[in-house]
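Standup notes
- DV: blocked on the single-chain target, sequence here:
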Amino acid sequence: MCGGDSTVGSNPTATAVRPTREFASAEEAPDTVGGFLAFSGGPRCGRTESPLSGRALDWETPTMTEKVRFAWRDPVTDAEMVELVLSHGGNPSAGWWDRIRPHSLGWVGARDEHGLLVGFVNVAWDGGDHAFLIDTKTRGGHQRQGIGTELVRLAAVNARAAGCEWLHVDFEPRLGAFYFDACGFRPTEAGLIRLREAGKA
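- DV (later): unblocked, structure below
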């Protein structure tokens, strides 16, 4: 499973999603809810660097919220990702982030005043109009402080700046208030096909 424990996919009428953890069969998988943000109502933002260059967009600077620093394409290591997942009882997969990182449009990292990674969200994409919000994570002791909401906000800002028109997400129903109310996603129908059996490559 990507990262071991994703807590949180494609137009508003046809969305591909995945479950938030591995299940032995499709029947065991819980319902998932799809959502999207549409970037419209004006011209797209320009940029001075490719989103894949590893450099922040020229107008995007890290923000500070209650001594937490947020940064687009923060230099997150695989070891930090493993520790972050463990902090809230997840099941990390060592090496996952090193494999996934080269394929991302970008990601947002959140760090406390000591540099500890306390939040993360990854943004995958199709190379064009569609971006996908996946693997939203907040450290166990830092949840319910607005960190997750700010992670998603900055992910949306940078996906739009990269030229994407849609930002998609899927999640368990219990997270609906977070994604729909706090983050501004709109509901959409979604579908899922399991392409391999659990535990098999």
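- Follow-up: The beta strands are 33-38, 63-65, 68-72, 106-111, 117-125, 130-138, 166-171, 186-188.
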